[in-house]
Amino acid sequence: MAAPLPQPSSSARPADLRARLETLIALARLLERLERSPGSASPDQYQQLVQRLKGLLDEPGLPDEALNAVLGAHPATAELYENIHYEHSGLCRSPLDQAVAAETQVAQLVSRLSRRH
User: What residues have CB less than 8 Å from 35, skipping those under 6 apart?
Assistant: First the structure.
């Protein structure tokens, strides 16, 4: 679950909110494509995309439901969100059972590799 964010102020216009969400979704989709195709963008292009996404994720006023839907559909953006808000909420979007399973698998692999040497 995402950390609570401020709700839109009464001065936020629905058209402005819609434009922000559409931009967030478009950039999140682009990040997913770049994550699946390493090297398809220059490091500068990738960094610019991440900075733009960080700016959108840091802006107050996105409704929690909309933010959670975007993050749920775009794992790379969810990971970025976790990193941005780590000091407040930790890795709150990562399911604990998956994290524990991954850690267990790594420990087993390290154990097997150490026995070979």
Answer: 76
